[in-house]
Design brief:
4 helices; Acetoacetate decarboxylase-like; 15-stranded mixed sheet; 15 strands
Length: 225
């Protein structure tokens, strides 16, 4: 599958491992940076989504998504574990749940631009009280993330893991050019998605907020982890 990701924001908070441990399957090791685990909130827009050698499907060609994630290791491979993935495409939600075992949730989502500000809103279809409003403006570019650094740890991940119906670990891999990150100023954040994942941030502001420039992405099917 190929796609184009744009209008992407990384919002991150440090979280003690013991908070996340009950929420992540025991078979997965929670990955840490200098002993600290992290939870991320990542809204973005998918465009030009299509399977190789197949024409684009109209309702999946372009849609907004927002995921809540943490970072794990599958053996020696750094990966992403998704607590939830909100998306406005009903077909994408069905397909990802059915064939990938990912916790996609059907939501209404909007993207607004005003000058240098970008705003995403999310409202879950079945539970409209759970959602997100996130507004930011992008500032200066950042140096490329270097291996071993926190920026690299949080953003340069090219695998996701899920647990199938038999309880087996499955891993899906993606590829894109390294992120070109920009410092972002968070203007407004009214978030209920992280709390819905079972993590209480106790009103803390995010520790790190980055915007990512657009990337072309290739994704492959799940393999046994």
């Amino acid at each position: 599958m190929t796609m184009h990701w744009r209008e992407l924001l990384f919002v991150h908070w440090p979280v003690p491992v013991e908070i996340l441990r009950p929420l992540v399957p025991e078979r997965l090791e929670i990955d840490t940076h200098d002993g600290t685990a992290w939870i991320g909130l990542v809204p973005f827009t998918m465009r030009d989504v299509r399977h190789r050698r197949c024409p684009p499907v109209p309702t999946m060609h372009r849609f907004h998504e927002c995921n809540v994630r943490t970072y794990v290791r599958c053996g020696d491979e750094p990966a992403v574990w998704f607590f939830s993935l909100d998306a406005e495409s009903r077909l994408a939600v069905w397909g990802a749940r059915r064939f990938w075992g990912l916790n996609y949730v059907h939501s209404t989502m909007t993207l607004e631009r005003s000058g240098d500000e970008v705003t995403y809103t999310v409202s879950r279809v079945r539970t409209p009280s759970v959602g997100l409003r996130c507004r930011w403006r992008t500032a200066t570019s950042r140096p490329p993330a270097t291996p071993g650094g926190l920026d690299h740890f949080l953003t340069e991940r090219y695998a996701l893991v899920t647990i199938d119906r038999r309880g087996s670990v499955r891993i899906g891999r993606i590829w894109h050019e390294p992120w070109r990150l920009r410092q972002a100023e968070l203007v407004e954040l009214d978030d209920g998605l992280v709390a819905a994942a079972g993590v209480d941030l106790d009103g803390r502001d995010p520790a790190l907020v980055f915007a990512g420039d657009s990337v072309d992405v290739s994704a492959w099917g799940l393999e046994r982890g």
